[in-house]
Design brief:
340 residues, Ferritin, single chain, binds fe (ii) ion
Length: 340
């Protein structure tokens, strides 16, 4: 699994490694600091130095984002699709393992926190309380992982189409666009927090393992992979819902007035009076809910013959059908018999 470098690294060895490459304090790696730079600076010159050229005025997003209304985004709900087939169950178990690894790697212990909170709220807050920095670490890692499946699936379908000299029926574009969207999430968070060397190391290791694992998994069972991503996105919706709730409850004071970075304002076309961190999380959560729906839907289809329902033109436009924006939300995916 992509989290193994973290899960197996003994604390002492990690601290030695940290010292060896010039770390300035000796805390073990499981603590927060190594994941991100000690001071989260609002400007990220290293990542986002604007390249000025003589002739280019601006380079907009290659895939323009559909417009979401505030009501639609507030209407996004946490949902779970029951695992029915063997393939569903394998996908769900794989997500559970991944989720455990991610929780471990990013110090996120919601279930334990909830249990302790019931008996001792103060102790729960001190021991498990999520801060803005901890959430940011989690988000950056989550997004760096989330941008891989669509690219791998899109690439494999692209190669398959050329190799078999057959049409793909529109799947490739949606899959690549999903990856692009996830990378925009990552770039947005990177605008707000620069990861430290340990976080970069984790992303590197995770990408190496994760990308290759997905490559083979998608060759073996694309249906299981789409279901797996559907379940993964269910978790992403849960994570962002918690962050929004924590802001509303006053538990993340630094985020209450934090403005969204300009990359996000441009990409999501955020209206002038809706440009806070909370608004940004609403947009990102809505995107995750869309990925959840798209992948559960693709997991219900014939992987070879069926057209991509998200780019198809329907005979009856008035009837609810899959679409790129949030007009018709179907959290657990569309059933094949309803749309093909
Ligand atoms: Fe994302
Ligand atoms: Fe996603």
């Amino acid at each position: 699994m992509p989290f193994s470098p973290v899960t197996i690294a003994p604390k002492r060895a990690s601290a030695q490694l940290y010292r060896a490459i010039g770390g300035t304090h000796l805390a073990p790696l499981s603590s927060l600091r190594q994941f991100s730079n000690a001071r989260n600076t609002p400007t990220s010159k290293e990542f986002f130095l604007e390249k000025k050229t003589e002739k280019v005025r601006k380079t907009p997003a290659a895939w323009p984002h559909p417009v979401y209304s505030y009501e639609q985004m507030e209407g996004v709900v946490v949902a779970h699709r029951e695992a029915e087939t063997m393939s569903d169950k394998v996908a769900f178990q794989a997500v559970k393992v991944l989720r455990w690894g991610l929780d471990f790697a990013t110090g996120y212990k919601h279930d334990k926190a909830t249990a302790l909170h019931a008996t001792d709220p103060q102790a729960a807050k001190a021991k498990y309380g999520m801060t803005e920095e901890k959430y940011m670490i989690r988000n950056i890692f989550l997004e760096s992982v989330a941008g891989v499946p669509g690219m791998v699936a899109g690439m494999l379908r692209h190669l398959h189409s050329m190799r078999r000299m057959k049409r793909d029926n529109g799947w490739i574009e949606s899959l690549l666009e999903e990856s692009y969207n996830e990378r925009m999430h990552l770039l947005t968070f990177l605008n707000m927090s620069q990861p430290g060397w340990f976080m970069r190391f984790m992303v590197l290791g995770a990408q190496g393992v994760w990308c290759n694992a997905l490559f083979f998994a998608y060759l073996i069972s694309p249906r299981t992979c789409h279901r797996f991503v559907g379940y993964l996105e269910e978790e992403a919706v849960i994570t962002y819902t918690r962050q929004i709730k924590d802001i509303d409850a006053g538990r993340l004071p630094k985020w209450e007035k934090l403005p969204a970075p300009s990359i996000a304002i441009d990409y999501w076309k955020m209206p002038e009076d809706r440009r806070t961190m909370r608004d940004l999380l609403l947009y990102i959560r809505a995107d995750e809910s869309k990925h959840r729906e798209v992948n559960h839907t693709l997991g219900n289809l014939d992987q070879v013959e069926d057209p991509n329902p998200y780019v198809s033109d329907y005979k009856d436009h008035a009837r609810p059908h899959p679409c790129k924006d949030l007009s018709f939300q179907k959290p657990t995916g569309w059933e094949r018999s309803d749309i093909i």
